[in-house]
Design a protein that fits this description.
single chain, alpha/beta, Rossmann fold, 2 domains, two-stranded antiparallel sheet, 10 helices, 35% helix, 18% strand
Length: 254
């Protein structure tokens, strides 16, 4: 099985970090290097994202298999898993299938529940960009601005652009991600309970983990706790990285 693209920093206990939908390991470089002061950090591009391989098969079972291949490749013992959004569902699903292989799980702003499709506007904007015709990132940004007003969101999305002497291309597998977007919101396939110690961190201004979700989460993850970073949305680790770092480190070192 093909190995996911990844970068390794530091030494010590392995801490594997998985990005969210339409992200890449590059989103985690700054925090990853900070974590690497005490741990061996492995930043990962999930399939159809970043520099990892493209595949028509895409879902949480496939992403769990990819993660397991990486863990077995390095013979990691009891790694710590950290995932944001889609990556959070991947690490939760990994804990459901391979709880004996994991020491702790950190889930950033996602629950194991079903989420309705809500990326239509983003995908419409990305698909509206004539990737074979644009001459600059500014060309792409002007088109995307018709769909997405927030400058920060467009900057994040356009990190998926790759440029060569032949022009622009997408790093991610946009066609598969667009056509199979329903996969991203699926409820996890879990066996009750998942005993691994788990920390859920949510953004106080995000609606991804609601107070009403917690009873169900505790049924699935009885050894879990919930922490909140106030004043941030779904990209909590990017909005308040120091606070996010401190909450993760406190949990890991308990």
């Amino acid at each position: 099985m093909e190995l996911l693209n990844h970068k390794v920093f530091g030494n010590g206990r392995p801490l594997i970090v998985l990005h969210g939908f339409l992200g890449s390991l590059d989103n985690w470089l700054t925090l990853g290097k900070k974590f690497a002061e005490e741990y061996q950090v492995i930043l990962v591009d999930q399939r159809n994202h970043g520099k990892s391989f493209h595949s028509a098969q895409w879902g949480y079972d496939e992403m769990v298999d990819d993660l397991n291949t990486l863990i077995e490749h390095y013979n990691f013992e009891n790694p710590i898993l950290l995932g944001h959004s889609m990556g959070g569902k991947t690490v939760m699903q990994y804990g459901a299938y391979h709880d004996e292989k994991v020491s702790k799980i950190i889930v950033a702003d996602i629950a194991p529940k079903f989420y309705p499709i809500h990326h239509q506007q983003i995908l419409a904007g990305l698909n509206a960009i004539p990737i074979d015709e644009i001459k600059s990132r500014e060309d792409a940004d002007q088109i995307l601005k018709q769909y997405i007003l927030e400058d920060g969101v467009r900057t994040f999305l356009l990190k998926n652009l790759s440029r060569s002497s032949e022009g622009f291309s997408w790093k991610m597998n946009l066609s598969v991600l667009s056509n199979q977007i329903s996969e991203i919101g699926k409820e996890l396939n879990y066996r009750l309970p998942i005993e691994t110690e788990t920390l859920f961190i949510r953004g106080g201004a995000s609606n991804y983990i609601l107070d009403d979700d917690w009873n169900e989460i505790e049924e699935v993850f009885p050894n879990s706790k919930l922490d909140t970073i106030n004043g941030v949305g779904h990209w909590l680790h990017a909005e308040k990285p120091s606070e996010f770092y401190n909450k993760v480190m406190t949990f890991i070192n308990e």
